[in-house]
Design brief:
This protein has 117 residues and is mainly β. The chain is built from no helices and six strands. It folds into two domains: 2-49, no CATH class; 53-117, no CATH class.
């Protein structure tokens, strides 16, 4: 997964697709430096912390939600609650778990803009 450039010491990721915060948040690398004859050496421990990105897609509990409302109801009257969650592995406590809802779909007329999430 890692490549160390000889004589420079630069460490690079060979395959970033194998980095996954939910699987392993921290990698430990042991880098060994030797002489050409390999008779003298030293080593260093390098810790690489994986930064989480929001790569787990949110999913609604239902495919379709439907409700009915009376006309002329006061503002902020409860109509319906949609439920959505982000599926994350059990061992993850990522900060990216928050799910934000927003209205999407066709363009609304000025009268229909009173609806909001």
């Amino acid at each position: 997964m890692w490549v160390v450039v000889v004589n420079v010491g630069q460490i690079t990721v060979q395959n970033s697709g194998r980095l996954d915060y939910e699987s392993l948040r921290r990698h430990r690398l042991i880098v060994i430096a030797t002489t050409r004859r390999h008779d003298v050496f030293d080593y260093a421990t390098v810790w690489v912390n994986v930064v989480d990105i929001n790569d787990n897609v949110p999913q609604f509990f239902q495919e379709r939600y439907q409700s009915a409302v009376w006309e002329n109801l006061p503002a902020n009257t409860f109509v319906l609650q949609v439920c959505c969650c982000r599926v994350i592995p059990v061992n993850s406590c990522s900060c990216n778990g928050a799910v934000r809802h927003r209205q999407c779909g066709r363009r609304l007329s000025s009268r229909q803009r009173d609806f909001g999430l």
